Amino acid sequence: MLVNLKEILKIAEEDKSAIGMFNATGFDSLQAVIAAAEELNKPVIIAHAEVHNVYNDISMVGPAMVAVAQNAKVPVCVHLDHGTSLDMVYKALRLGFTSVMMDASALPYEENLRLTKMITEAAHSMNVSVEAELGRLVTGEAGSGEEMVGAKAEDFYTRPDEAEAFCKATGIDALAIAFGTAHGFYSAQPKLDFDVVKNCAKATGLPLVMHGGSGVSEEGFKKAIVNGIRKINYYSYMSKAGYMAAKSAIESGKTSYLHDVEYAAMQAMKEDVKKTISIFSNK
Fold first, then answer.
1. Catalytic-role residue among 28, 81, 103, 173
2. Tens digits of per-residue pLDDT, 26-51?
3. If DSSP codes are grouped into helix, strand and coil, which group holds residue 246?
4. Is 193 a catalytic residue?
C-alpha cells in the first residue's frame, strides 16, 4: 500500500516507535526490504538517495519502487533521500514518489529555508510529503568525512530555536536533525546528545529523523525514539550484510552464477532489515 511520509509517520507517533528507511540501491535490496517488512507486518520506507544515482538511475529504479509499494501488503512510503539538486527532486515528484528530502543543509540557513519552502509548496500540491535537514553530520552522505576534517560533531548539532522557526516558515512534514550520528561505518560507538532530540521535538512538534542510523546501539535507538525520533535511516550495515553473504557465496566455489550470489546477498539483507525493524518498533 503506497502512502506518503506524513501518513506513515503518523503510525510511528501513535505507536511511539520509529519507521525504518532503507536505501534500495538495486532490485536485490528492494526485494529484501519489502520482504522483511511483509514478514513482520510492519510499515517501511524505501528510498533512492541522489548519491546512489550513478549505480541505479532513478528513471529506472524509481518506477519499480513505486510499483512494489503499491502492491505491498504493508504501508510503504517511497522516498527521495538527500535530494541536493532541484532536478533530482522534481524527477522524484514526476515519477510518483510520495516523499522527498530537500537537503540544502550545507547551504546558508536562509537559502536552505528558501529552497525547502519552494519544494514544500510544490510537493504538497501533489500530496507528497517533505523532509528537510538542519544541522549537519560530520560525514557526508557517502560516508566521507573529507568535507569537515577536524570538525567537532557538536559544532553542527541542530539548534531547537532555529528548528522551530525553520519548520514554521517552510511547512515541512519531518525534520532531520544532527545530534551525534554519522553516515557510513563507525570506528567507535557514537556519543548521542538526546537533549537535542527532546528539545527539537518539543520546539517543532514534528516527527524527527535520525540519519546515520547504522551502527548505533539498540539502547541508543530506544533512547532516540523515546525522545522523539520517528524515522531512522539505515543502509550501511544492511549493505555490509549483503556484501559479506555475496563474498561467502563466491568464495565457497559452489556457483559461478551471479544470480546465486545476488540471492545470497538479498537473503542476508532481508534478515538484517528484519532485525532492525524489530528494534525500531520499540515493542
1. 81
2. 999 999 999 999 999 999 999 999 99
3. helix
4. no
